[in-house]
Amino acid sequence: MTRRIAWTLLALTSVLLVLAVVPLAVSMTARERVSYRDNQRAATRLIAAAAEEHLSDHKPATAMRKELGTAARAGDCAAVYDASARLVASTPCTAAQGEEAAELVGKVLAGHEPEPPEKEGRLLAAEPAGEVRRPAGAVVLARSAAPLDARTAAIWGWSAAIGAAGLAASVLLSARLARWVGRPLSTLDASARRLGEGALDERTDVDAGPPEVRRLAATFNTMAARTEALVHGHRAVIADVSHQLRTPLAALRLRLDVLAAGAEEGTATELAAAQEEIARLSRLVDGLLAVARAEQATPRPSAVRVDEVVAERVAAWSPVAEERGVGLRAVSAGPAVTVALGAGHLEQILDNLVANAVEAVPAGGSITLDVREAGGRARVLVRDDGPGMTAEAKELAFHRFGNPETRGSGLGLAIVHRLVTANGGAARLEDTPGGGLTVVLDLPLWPERGHERGIASRSLPVDRTADQNR
Q1: Domains recognised in the chain with CATH numbers
Q2: pTM
């Protein structure tokens, strides 16, 4: 933005300077040329007046020769012609003689006013001696164009200097104005990016830039403060709810265990059923708390090697899968993929998906975790050959308790969807060819692809909820 502002102002100033300086220089040059010509014609008329006294009135040529001498001392060349176009007198130099001079004399004697030409760096001027219609002769004066050229060059030189000075001033002012406007906006943009990455205590400078930018920065700080207070408040509520609900549930479960130990057979059966309901309620509370934490997640992305995390989770879940008679393996197509995810999120996502698949796939089935890069993103596929889902169930699977076909709490896929979308990814469900369900995760790649080996690391697990079902 800073560059665009600077270049726009610079281009506008350049156009204005060109439109102002060039016409002015052209006008001054034309005026200087007219003035130079008028001065030359005035000098030519002085000689013509003295020549008329000699040619018409037959007076001595003293006055005429005096004017010719004055012209010669001024560096001019002059020649006087009679009515027959014969040379009468001239200065020592012969620049006022020749074909061009003869042509001028012919036109003057014919009563015309010719346009003075330029000959070898000299400007020629011709005036009649006497009346214009019946002149007694003609005078031709040749004057060097060097002074006129020098003045013209000086005019253009000063014009160029003024334009360059104006352009330099414009560059300085444009750069200063662009920094004044652009730097606070860049700072605000960086602060907004860090706030979006999870730095809830991020604030921006409100004392720089135009008033509108300062008001925007103050509004941003107010919004950031309210967001921080809201998130911290929700986290505190979640912690309180977690403590307040788990503690009485645990106490109730222990009391039921004590009662069941000395109860009769019929009562023990009822108490066992109550214990199962308490266990289901505990799992439901844990699932709701996990979803709430996921919905309030503001991840700060870090480099996560997907192949390493997948291999780790496969190793962790293999004993459970073997116990149920389910095959669990990981495959990878192409080079290692590094994604930008919050700490522990990929582990939590995979734990929920693998737990769901292990619960759904019957004995003899298989689960495959496939990692690849597709469309500029990392793609993780969790395929199983279980019973799959209907189209209606897939549409509601990512909602809380949205899947009516689930055998568990129905919160696992809701947690997965929230964690994936909070990190800028996308999740969807597809049918596995041959039967089953495939969960497709598209995750953002880590931007510094050239430094993956030096900075990529597995994320640390933080709130792993592996026992939530579809």
Answers
A1: 2-149 (3.30.450.20), 211-293 (1.10.287.130), 300-455 (3.30.565.10)
A2: 0.46
